[in-house]
UniProtKB/TrEMBL annotation:
<dbReference type="InterPro" id="IPR057326">
    <property type="entry name" value="KR_dom"/>
</dbReference>
<dbReference type="GO" id="GO:0016616">
    <property type="term" value="F:oxidoreductase activity, acting on the CH-OH group of donors, NAD or NADP as acceptor"/>
</dbReference>
<dbReference type="InterPro" id="IPR002347">
    <property type="entry name" value="SDR_fam"/>
</dbReference>
<dbReference type="Pfam" id="PF13561">
    <property type="entry name" value="adh_short_C2"/>
</dbReference>
<comment type="similarity">
    <text>Belongs to the short-chain dehydrogenases/reductases (SDR) family.</text>
</comment>
<protein>
    <submittedName>
        <fullName>SDR family oxidoreductase</fullName>
    </submittedName>
</protein>
<dbReference type="InterPro" id="IPR020904">
    <property type="entry name" value="Sc_DH/Rdtase_CS"/>
</dbReference>
<dbReference type="InterPro" id="IPR036291">
    <property type="entry name" value="NAD(P)-bd_dom_sf"/>
</dbReference>
<feature type="domain" description="Ketoreductase">
    <location>
        <begin position="12"/>
        <end position="193"/>
    </location>
</feature>
<keyword id="KW-0560">Oxidoreductase</keyword>
């Protein structure tokens, strides 16, 4: 977790998708420790409620957990509205939620493809659509979309996911141009291989991790907390003139 303090984030209304586990839980904690009013959406109820309890005990501030399946656009819109009712309109939106399910080309059905995009790309747009009217009215706002370096490294086994993550960059640049005149900044973060519990449980092998770290300039594992500082920076006034950019956080593997 970063030691940096961004004063303008204190009391800022922040909405985070997928904020209950993995990278998202670190983002929720990072913004909460800045004194922001954090609301987060997730489907992992037990983990999310435990996170809220811990942060309330440690910081005195309890994030607002909003159970929502991001594949349900109506539920997503309702959650963003509920967050605004509780904390005021979002000044910061972080689109973090994703699932990197593996799939072979020959096994992908239209139904699988659509369901995968409905987690990894579609909610980014509709969360932004829900938050933007209030940002326009305020004349400012910061949106941070999480992409991935996975689409940059020519890796196999999850083509729908990498297509979505490339799409996040296109969405970021297109909306930065459209929303910039209203004072709204839109940027992306592309993490490298971050050692979340999910990654360790499903994909990490000793040999594979060693080979990946050998390609990095910084010879350490990337932790979920390493995404917090970059996200806080892009959300804050320190990045006042930064928009339409992708910040790669991969320990120098590219």
């Amino acid at each position: 977790m970063t030691d940096a303090i961004f004063p303008d984030l204190r009391d800022a209304a922040v909405v985070i998708t997928g904020g209950g586990t993995g990278i998202g839980a670190c983002l929720t904690e990072g913004f909460a420790r800045q004194g922001a009013r954090v609301a987060f959406l997730d489907i992992a109820e037990a983990e999310s409620r435990a996170l809220c309890e811990r942060l309330e005990e440690e910081t005195g501030c309890r994030p607002l957990f909003l159970p929502a399946d991001l594949r349900d656009v109506a539920a997503l819109r309702a959650a963003v509205a509920q967050a605004a009712d509780a904390h005021g309109p979002a000044a910061v939106l972080v689109n973090n939620a994703a699932r990197d399910d593996r799939h072979a080309v020959e096994d992908v059905t239209p139904e699988f493809w659509d369901a995968n995009q409905a987690v990894n790309l579609r909610p980014h747009f509709f969360a932004i659509q829900a938050a933007v009217p209030a940002m326009k009215a305020a004349g400012r706002g910061a949106i941070v979309n999480f992409s991935s370096t996975s689409y940059m490294i020519n890796g196999g086994g999850f083509a729908s996911y990498t297509a979505a993550k490339a799409g996040v960059i296109g969405l970021t640049k297109g909306l930065a141009g459209e929303l910039g005149p209203f004072g709204i900044r839109v940027n992306a973060i592309a993490p490298g291989w971050v050692m979340t519990k999910r990654q360790r449980d499903l994909w990490v092998t000793e040999a594979g991790l060693k080979a990946h770290i050998d390609r990095q300039c910084l010879k350490q594992e990337i932790a979920p907390a390493d995404m917090v500082g970059p996200c806080l920076f892009l959300a804050s006034s320190a990045a006042r003139m930064v928009t339409a950019q992708t910040l790669i956080v991969d320990a120098g593997s590219l």
